[in-house]
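Holo prediction — DGJ.
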Amino acid sequence: MRELFCLQTDHTTYLVGVSDAGFVEQLYYGAKIETPLDPGTLREKHAAPYPMMVYDREAPLLGQDDLCLEYSASGRGDFRECALELETQWGSRTADLRYRSHFWLPEKPALPGLPSSYGSEQNLVITLADEALDVTVELHYSVFPSCDVITRHALLKNGQKTSLKLHRMYSAQLDLAETGDTFVTFDGGWAVERTKHEKPLSPGIYVNDSKTGTSSARHNPFVILARPHCTEDQGDCFGLNLVYSGSHAEAAEETTLGKTRLLTGLNPAGFCWNLAKGASFCTPEAVLCFSDGGFNGLSARLHPFVRSHIVRGHWRDRERPMLVNNWEGTFFDFDEEKLLNIAREGADLGLELFVLDDGWFGRRDDDRTSLGDWTVDRRKLPHGLKYLAEQVNALGLLFGLWFEPEMVSEESELYRAHPDWALKCPERLPAQGRTQLVLDLTRAEVRDYIVKSVSQVLESANIQYVKWDMNRHLSDVSSAALPPEQQGEVLHRYVLGLYEIYERLTDRFPQVLFEGCSSGGNRFDLGILCYMPQIWASDNTDALCRMEIQEGTSYAYPQSTMGAHVSATAFHTAGRFTLWETRFNVAAFGCLGYELDLTKLTPEEKACLKRQVDWYRAHRKTLQFGQLYRLPAPKNQMAWCSVAQDKKAAVAGFFQKSMRPTLTHDTLTLRGLDGETAYVLRSRPQLQEAPEREEASQALEEYYRARGDQLNLAGIRLAQQSSATGWNENMRAMGDLSSRLYTLEAE
Ligand code: DGJ
């Protein structure tokens, strides 16, 4: 072994070795071990070739197809999905990467044009080279010891005298010398974002990807590779995520030679990047994490990483304001008076931020017009935004505004002036989505226009929050400003353009709280979170659907990043009746908001909401910044707890999706509490379903005392649930979709 690199975090070890033949090999990634006495003991022994092996004449016993490589290239006998595929001037697609050198950097360098994590403690660069081509690939590793995270990205330099084409270049590769794992992905679509699915791997390739131009609700870039028998609380698993907001791919390949390869990075579909002589290409950053404490253990490492090394700026550690948003209350049909009435009610309830959603600009009475024309519609708001913001501020609320700056309506001044600013192919009219087109962010003048027009609005009034929406997938991916050979760059250049816009706007308005949004949670990823501390998780605020969506999201993303609202019942995505209290109890595990016409509430409903808001304010820090654990629960229930960072407080949520008449004894088992500490548990005073379902009544107030070790391991038996056979005031009356919250306080 020529070199050994040992990356240590507090609880994990990542070992990379360089073989005598120059292959940079993955030796170990898992729970912490000391530097091995003899690293050779971690290498597979190659004393004879395997059948059909393709090998290098200098190393006849080594076939690339059966090595655990840190980064692979196509063409020299590695027949798995490869990390790199380039095309030379000659037209060949073969590369052979071997170790050339390495160095350590005192600070993590910025990734050109791309957002990335910050605050690493060690930074290693291993340079691979294809000597025949004069191409190098730098593998960058950054270590975040206390979060047990290692990030990686790759930088290719074309040292040739001619240009190259890149057909694929992934960010990171993990080659494991075992099989039999389960690939866990978070999939869905509009209103069903990030639902967890488990796929047992078998020989072949499974690809989790998005080709929509966004990270997408279809398949989030976060994936888990779970070792056999891994559960929420036990077992080994690897988490991979990507600091990127565009089309991505995560391939998991199990081979018949007994290896598993994981790749994550830019989606190769439709990708072709031209690299002039002397030029470089940098991939987005990948985030790697290992846990031997199951999925909860993984989340407990990834959440602090996201909170402290991805999210940044003024709002990073600040409690997020409770908001009221007018969208579901009014849709496009509003005027100044209607908005101010909602804001007044919001202020009375104790809310802190009023957000004016879609429809305030151009002449936008439905979703067919005006995107791109970011000037206030005086028909609806005769006194303008400044006045409206002042009125809202006078009520004691912050004022926030919705934008969708990446889009243009054909029915707009902007499109009439610049039809070539939309993505479109020369041969045909562009396809529509929500009657709108996508602006060509590869063009500097388009980016300048967006920065200028959004800045003008933000400077025109006291706007302290921006909801940045994006409501369609990219099609007709072609730019009138680029030559034919560069059209394969448009998808990635779009995302780079978006990041440049974010960079400029967040620099200029550092105190504004930006919330990302894309038809709900269609772009919920670490790239967005580098600029926007929170993202609207889903347009679906039905409590039952939200349980699944928020739980799925929680595997990789902390509660402080999740916008979660209470909306009117018979909500338009599910049409289901759920109790106010359950809608709140679910939304409480995120950045709370209300999204309805508050003026239409009855006095009883207002009183109920006011109690919710006051209670949330008192426990907000624990709910937004505590560590979330998914708790054991039978199939018809779900339970979570959020434990304050000092473990002196926690909030637990107990949710019942459907009642089972004879199952009336529930155990609430927690996680993450300090075993030695005694805690007092109290149920949140709330309304419950009345036993006869006629009117709401006050829920039984529960009180328990227990030590952390008991709560973590044995739990507590809650008061009996009412069943079909009886009810009295010592019982919890719980039907379908009912829930309770419990606070825990250290004595
Ligand atoms: C989609 C978002 O997800 C909604 O919250 C709302 O802002 C609409 N767009 C407005 O058009």
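READOUT: Residues 327, 357-358, 402, 469, 471, 517, 519-520, 536, 539 surround DGJ (CB under 6 Å).
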